[in-house]
Amino acid sequence: MYRNLKPLFPYLKKYRWTLFIGALTVFGNNGIWVLFPQILRRAINDLDAHRSSPRLLAIYAGLLLAVAVTKGVFQYLTRWLVIGVSRDVEYDLRNDMFAHLERLPYSYYQQNRTGDIMARATNDLNYVRMLMGPAIMYTANTLVFTVAALFFMWRTSPKLTVLAFLPLPLASIVIQHFGRRIHERFEKIQEQFSNISARAQENFSGARLIRAYVQERAEIELFETSNREYVARSLPLARLMGMLWPALELLLGLAVAVVLWMGPREVLMGRMSVGDFYSFYTYLIMLTWPVIALGWVINVFQRGLASMGRINEILTVHPDINDSAVAEDLRHAETVRGTVEFRNLTFSYNGAAVLKNINLEIPAGTSLAIVGPTGSGKTTLVSLIPRIYDVQTREAKHNGMPSQGEIGAAGELLLDGRPLREYPLATLRRSIGFVPQETFLFSDTIRENIAFGVESATDEQIHSAAEAANIATDIEAFPDQYNTMVGERGITLSGGQKQRTAIARAIIRDPRILVLDDALASVDTHTEEKILSHLREIMQGRTTIFISHRVSTVRSADRIAVLHEGRVVELGTHEELLERNGYYTELYNKQLLEEELAQV
Question: What is the pTM of this model?
Answer without folding.
Answer: 0.71
